[in-house]
Write a structure and sequence with these properties.
Layout (H helix, E strand, L loop, with lengths): L1 E4 L3 H8 L20 E12 L2 E11 L5 E11 L8 E5 L2 H9 L5 E2 L5 H6 E5 L2 H7 L2 H13 L6 E5 L2 E7 L14 H26 L27 E4 L8 H37 L3 H4 L3 H28 L20
Parallel strand pairs: 2-10
Antiparallel strand pairs: 1-2, 2-3, 3-4, 4-9, 5-7, 5-8, 6-7, 8-9
């Protein structure tokens, strides 16, 4: 097992773009929104029991410069699976699941295990293959992995001869607020947490009972796991950088906040103009449209209100239309060019 600090950009880039393990494998598999840059903190890589793996703490940024994921990613090349993508994640509730699926036609996979159904949501581009992958044994292993993840809402995808795992919020660095506690009160816990992270790849292989790729499968032990049929866009790998105003809140403010401000402003000033215009017309009649000195200002207020509300609504519609939910990029029935079942 090899540890690479994210500041060693050349080594980190090589580890994240190797033949067996490639950061681009996380593109378009339903684990997170599309990203253009991977800002790396740490990398653990190497084979464990002939299973190539990668575990990295990373911050993923989209083309607009906003963060779409921060936490740990793990990739294991197994050669298992067929032409479909199967995604499993924590049940995010009615609203969360709707946001994740927004704009996607991918089907939800109904599982027979009621206990698993209460915790996770499963989606697949092929219902038959999803049920082949998500056996009762695998469901039990995923539940055990959820315990190992300490409730960090892990997500996983079976795609392209790989098992891909995402652990949002999992970090090497201790939280800044720990400095307010006595040193002896958290150093031991933090040391144990680091040891858990270092042992995590081996524990994942143990819990999921992963083995080397089969020669009769999609990949061989000597060759890399098969990439997706539709090649994902290249990812720029850089060292970690905490840039201000790029988090989720800033993204919401930029995409939704300004639109709501325009709508609120237009409603306020347009509403006031309409109210005073109605009062003048009620007192003076329709002749006030020409004779009242306040009517030009009222007309401007109405025009501003209509324009601001319309502009804000257009921006809000554009934000919703271009929202790339994690599952939106997945096709309904498989990868482009994949052989359909008959």
């Amino acid at each position: 097992m090899v540890h690479i600090d994210g500041q060693r950009q050349a080594a980190a880039r090589a580890a994240l773009t190797s033949g067996d393990i490639d950061i681009t494998a996380f593109q378009g598999v339903g684990l997170m929104e599309p990203f253009a840059t991977a800002q790396v903190e740490h990398v653990l890589s190497g084979p464990i029991g002939r299973v190539p793996f990668l575990l990295t703490e990373v911050r993923l940024v989209n083309q607009e410069g906003y963060q779409v994921f921060r936490g740990a990613l793990a990739s294991f090349a197994t050669g298992r699976g067929g032409e479909a993508i199967t995604v499993v994640g924590r049940d995010w509730g009615l609203i969360g699941n709707a946001v994740a699926r927004f704009g996607s036609t991918i089907e939800r996979v109904t599982l027979e295990d009621p206990t698993f159904e209460a915790i996770f949501e499963a989606y697949g581009t092929d219902q038959v293959e999803a049920r082949v992958v998500l056996t009762t044994t695998m469901l039990e292993r995923l539940r055990a992995l959820d315990t190992l993840a300490r409730g960090l809402s892990f997500r996983c995808a079976f795609a392209g001869g790989r098992i891909l795992l995402a652990f949002p919020g999992m970090r090497w660095r201790p939280s800044w607020w720990l400095v307010a506690r006595p040193l002896a009160g958290w150093v031991t816990d933090y040391r144990q947490w680091l040891e858990t992270l270092i042992r995590l790849p081996a524990r994942i292989i143990e819990v999921l009972a992963l083995g080397p790729a089969s020669r009769s499968g999609m990949a061989s032990p000597a060759g890399p796991a098969r990439l997706l049929a539709a090649a994902p866009a290249p990812v720029n790998v850089t060292a970690a950088a905490d840039e201000p105003f790029t988090g989720g809140l800033s993204r919401i403010v930029a995409g939704v906040g300004m639109a709501l401000i325009y709508i609120a402003s237009g409603t306020l000033f347009g509403g006031l103009a309409a109210f005073f215009g109605w009062m003048i017309l009620r007192e003076e009649g329709w002749s006030a449209i020409v004779g009242n000195a306040f009517m030009p200002m009222i007309a401007l207020g109405l025009l501003y209100g209509i324009g601001a509300v319309g502009f804000g609504a257009m921006r809000l519609f554009t934000f919703v239309r271009t929202w790339r939910g994690p599952l939106r990029g997945l096709p309904a029935s498989g990868w482009p060019g994949a052989r359909r079942r008959t």
